[in-house]
Design brief:
- The protein is an alpha+beta fold and about 80 residues long.
- It contains two helices and two strands.
- The protein has helices spanning about 5-20, 40-55, and strands at about 30-35, 60-65.
- A two-stranded parallel sheet has the order 1-2.
- Helix 2 (about 40-55) links the parallel strand 1 and strand 2.
C-alpha cells in the first residue's frame, strides 16, 4: 500500500493552475459559488473555495439567494 500526501498533491495542482491562470490573456476567470443558508459547514467550505480561487488568481463571487427561494426559481 502506498501512502499519498494529499496536501502536497493539492499544493502541486494549485501551483500549476496559478501558472496557467497567470498566462491567460485578458480578464481573469471567475468562480461563482452559490450558497443558500448559513450552515456552518457550507460557510466554511465556500470560504475555503474563495481562498483557493484567490490564491490561484481567479476572481471568486459568492451568490447568496434568499433562504426561502423555491427550487423552481433556480431552474432555467
Amino acid at each position: 500500500m502506498e501512502l499519498i500526501d494529499g496536501n502536497r498533491i493539492a499544493a502541486d495542482i494549485i501551483r500549476e493552475l496559478k501558472a496557467e491562470v497567470a498566462g491567460l490573456p485578458g480578464r481573469k476567470p471567475c468562480l461563482a459559488l452559490v450558497r443558500v443558508g448559513d450552515d456552518p459547514a457550507s460557510v466554511s467550505y465556500v470560504r475555503q473555495k474563495e481562498k483557493t480561487a484567490a490564491e490561484i488568481g481567479i476572481v471568486g463571487r459568492v451568490l447568496l439567494p434568499p433562504v426561502d427561494i423555491p427550487q423552481s426559481g433556480c431552474s432555467r
